[in-house]
Design goal:
Elements: H1 5-21, H2 27-48, E1 52-58, H3 76-84, E2 86-88, E3 91-92, H4 98-107, H5 111-114, H6 122-130, H7 137-143, E4 147-152, E5 166-169, H8 176-192, E6 196-201, H9 213-217, H10 238-241, H11 273-303, E7 310-316, H12 335-338, E8 339-340, E9 342-345, E10 354-356, E11 360-361, H13 365-373, H14 387-391, E12 401-405, E13 417-421, E14 425-430, E15 435-439, H15 457-473, H16 481-497
Parallel strand pairs: 1-6, 1-7, 2-10, 3-11, 4-5, 4-6
Antiparallel strand pairs: 2-9, 3-8, 7-9, 12-13, 13-14, 14-15
Helix pairs in contact: 1-2, 8-11
Bound molecules: calcium ion.
Calcium ion binds at residues 59-60, 98, 206, 317-318, 511.
Length: 511
C-alpha cells in the first residue's frame, strides 16, 4: 500500500498517539492526547477509505489549447484544477489516433500489442474482449471492489464489453447527455458508499466545433496568432504527410466535411490564414465549453460530498494540428499531435500546486490508478506508475517516451510512423524509411530536420537504438512499402464496394 503514503503517515501518527496513551501521564495531558488521538483515528478512518477516481479523457485537445499553456484560451476550471494539483507538462499519448490511443489507455499496452492500431476497434475486440489477453483497468479495479463506469465517446464498443461495470457510449457532440449521466451517477454513488472509477469521455473539442454561441463569442475578437510552423499545405516527406513521400492524399482530406463545422474545418487544414483563424476560434470555443462543464462537475462532486476523497485525472486522447506543418487532424508524430495537457488533482495528493517536466505517457494512467488504489498491477502493463512523481514532482519515471501510429493495413491513415522522445530530442522513423531528428530546445516547433547533421550522428544513433529496443519489446512487424501499397489497393477496392458507408475514406478523420 505504498501508494497510500499520506494515509500511511496518518496511521503512523495514530500508532504513536496510541502508544503515548499507554504511558503514565498527568491527567490533563492524557486527556488532551486522548482527544488528539480520537481526532486522528477519525481522520485515519476517513483516509483509509479507498479513493474514488474520476478520469476525464477528452477528445483532440492539443497541449497548447489550455489556458495555463496559452493565455488566449479561456479554461478557468481546468487551470484551477491543474494549479491546485500536479501538472504534467510533457505528457504524450501512446498513439495520436482516437481508437488506438483509448484502447492503449484501457488495456495498458501499445497499439501494436492489442491490435487496434488505427480508427477501428477490431484488434482490441479480439485481443482484449474475446481472448482476454490484457485485463483492462476497469476490470482489475472491479475485482478489487470498485464500481466502474464509462459515459461518453467510446470508439471501442459499449464500455461494459471491455470491463466497465456500467456505462454507455454517447455520441452527443456537445456532451450534454454525457454530463447528465455523470450527474446521475455521482448522486447514486454518493449514497452507495462504495469506491468508484468514473471515466468521462467528452467528445469536445473534436470537430464539428458546435459549442453554444456564448462560448464561441469568447473568441469573437480574440487576437489569434498562428504558430510559427503554420503552413498552407504539408511538406512532402512522409513524416509530415503520413503518406508515401510526394503523396499528400492522406493529409488533404478536403472531402471529409463535418456537418455544421466552420468553413474549411475538414479533416485536413484550411488553406488560408483567415479561415484557419476562424477554425481555431471555433476549436477554442469547444475547449471553453468543455471547461464550463468540468466546472459544473466539480460543483457536483462537492455537493455530493465526494470531492475530498476523489482523485481527478485529466488528459486528451490525442492532440490536434491547427494548421501546424500545413496539417489539420493529428496522426503524425509532431508535438501538436502527440502531446496533450494532463494533470492530477485531489485533496488527497501528498504534494500540491506543482508542475512536472517528466516524460510521461498515457499508458501510465492505468498503473498510476492501481498504485493510488493500492491494487497490485498486472504484469502486462507497458506504462509506469506516476506515484513517485506525485510524491516528488522533480522526479522522473523514464528516460524516453514512445508514440506509434502504424494504421496500415487496419485502416486508412497511410504510412506508419513511430517516435522516440527524450528530454529535448525527437527521432521519427516512417515505414517509408524516412527519418527526422529534431532538437526541441532550439526548435520547439520542429521546423529543422537534423537527421543529416554529422555532429549529431551519435545522438541520432542512440535514439535509433532506443526505438529499436521498444520495437523489439512490442514485437513490431514493419510493413514494406510494397505491402502498404497492396493494402491500400485492397482498401480502395473495398471502398468501391461500400460506396455508401458512413466512415470516411482515404484521408480519414482519425478520430
Ligand atoms: Ca481523438
Amino acid at each position: 500500500m505504498e501508494a497510500h503514503c499520506h494515509i500511511c503517515i496518518m496511521l503512523d501518527f495514530c500508532k504513536m498517539f496510541a502508544s503515548c496513551l499507554s504511558f503514565p501521564q498527568i491527567p490533563f495531558m492524557k486527556s488532551s492526547l486522548a482527544c488528539a488521538a480520537l481526532l486522528l483515528v477519525a481522520l485515519c478512518a476517513k483516509a483509509a477509505t479507498p479513493p474514488n477516481f474520476v478520469v476525464i479523457l477528452c477528445d483532440d485537445q492539443t497541449y497548447r489549447a489550455i489556458g495555463y499553456n496559452n493565455p488566449v484560451v479561456k479554461t478557468p476550471n481546468m487551470d484551477k484544477l491543474a494549479g491546485e494539483g500536479i501538472r504534467f507538462d510533457r505528457a504524450f499519448v501512446a498513439s495520436p489516433i482516437c481508437a488506438a490511443s483509448r484502447a492503449s489507455i484501457y488495456s495498458g499496452v501499445f497499439p501494436q500489442q492489442h491490435g487496434t492500431v488505427g480508427l477501428f476497434g477490431g484488434g482490441f475486440q479480439k485481443s482484449v474482449v474475446q481472448e482476454k489477453r490484457f485485463a483492462t483497468l476497469p476490470a482489475v479495479l472491479e475485482k478489487a471492489g470498485y464500481h466502474t463506469a464509462l459515459y461518453g465517446k467510446s470508439h471501442l464498443g459499449e464500455p461494459t464489453t471491455f470491463g466497465f461495470s456500467e456505462g454507455r457510449e454517447i455520441k452527443d457532440p456537445n456532451d450534454l447527455e454525457t454530463f447528465a449521466e455523470v450527474e446521475k451517477f455521482l448522486a447514486r454513488e454518493a449514497k452507495s458508499g462504495r469506491p468508484f472509477l468514473l471515466w468521462i469521455t467528452p467528445r469536445n473539442p473534436h470537430l464539428p466545433f458546435t459549442a453554444p454561441q456564448e462560448f464561441k463569442d469568447i473568441y469573437k475578437d480574440a487576437d489569434i496568432k498562428l504558430d510559427p510552423n503554420w503552413r498552407e499545405s504539408p511538406l512532402m516527406q512522409s513524416f509530415f504527410n503520413q503518406g508515401p513521400a510526394g503523396d499528400i492524399s492522406f493529409r488533404d482530406s478536403k472531402n471529409l466535411v463535418y456537418p455544421g463545422a466552420p468553413a474549411g474545418a475538414t479533416g485536413g487544414p484550411p488553406r488560408n490564414e483567415s479561415q484557419m483563424k476562424e477554425v481555431i476560434k471555433a476549436y477554442y470555443g469547444d475547449v471553453s465549453f468543455l471547461d464550463s462543464q468540468i466546472g459544473t462537475l466539480i460543483g457536483q462532486l462537492k455537493a455530493d460530498g465526494l470531492y475530498e476523497n476523489t482523485i481527478i485525472i485529466y488528459l486528451a486522447d490525442n492532440g490536434y494540428f491547427l494548421g501546424n506543418h500545413g496539417l489539420g487532424n493529428k496522426i503524425t508524430m509532431h508535438e501538436e499531435s502527440v502531446r496533450v495537457p494532463m494533470f492530477v488533482h485531489s485533496p488527497l495528493l501528498p504534494v500540491k500546486k506543482a508542475k512536472s517536466d517528466a516524460l510521461v505517457s498515457s499508458l501510465d494512467v492505468y498503473p498510476t490508478i492501481l498504485d493510488l488504489a493500492g491494487v497490485p498491477a498486472p504484469s502486462h502493463l507497458m506504462g509506469k506508475s506516476l506515484v513517485p512523481i506525485l510524491k516528488d514532482p522533480s522526479g522522473k519515471v523514464r528516460d524516453y517516451v514512445i508514440t506509434e501510429c502504424v494504421g496500415i493495413p487496419e485502416n486508412r491513415v497511410g504510412v506508419g510512423h513511430r517516435m522516440v522522445r527524450t528530454d529535448h530530442f525527437k527521432y521519427i522513423l516512417s515505414d517509408a524509411d524516412e527519418a527526422a531528428f529534431f532538437d526541441l530546445r532550439s526548435d520547439p516547433y520542429e521546423m529543422t530536420n537534423l537527421i543529416a547533421n554529422p555532429e549529431l550522428k551519435n545522438e541520432i544513433e542512440r535514439h535509433r537504438k532506443m526505438l529499436g529496443e521498444w520495437s523489439a519489446s512490442v514485437g513490431e512487424k514493419r510493413l514494406t512499402m510494397d505491402e502498404i501499397k497492396a493494402a491500400k489497393a485492397q482498401e480502395e477496392k473495398a471502398d468501391g464496394d461500400k460506396k455508401k458507408r458512413k466512415e470516411p475514406a482515404a484521408g480519414g478523420a482519425g478520430e
